[in-house]
Model the fold of this input.
Amino acid sequence: MGGIRLDLLPQAADVETVVLLSKLKVDHHIEIELKMDELDLTAAESKATYDEIKAYVLNKYGLKVSQLYIAQIKRKCGIIERKNYNVSKKEDAKVPQCPPEKEAAIMDALKHFQMI
Done:
């Protein structure tokens, strides 16, 4: 027989976990040291997603931009991306470059989201 599941905030994107902690042996303990610098996110990591950037550029400029173009501009600004495993096997693969008007729009979006 399972417990009752109740979602008090169905529209919320966050998930909260409640845990009951108990100490069986009070004479034993574990010490944990967390350094805050190891936990800190970079400004870029805590900001907008690709979809949010695309939506901003579309709404403000009426331009559709690809994830490729966004990645190119982020790289140009020094924002480190994770490794892309979806790379062409061809040595002479042509990669389209972001046009100047889309580059300016993406740069504006990155500034808007305080990523640069």
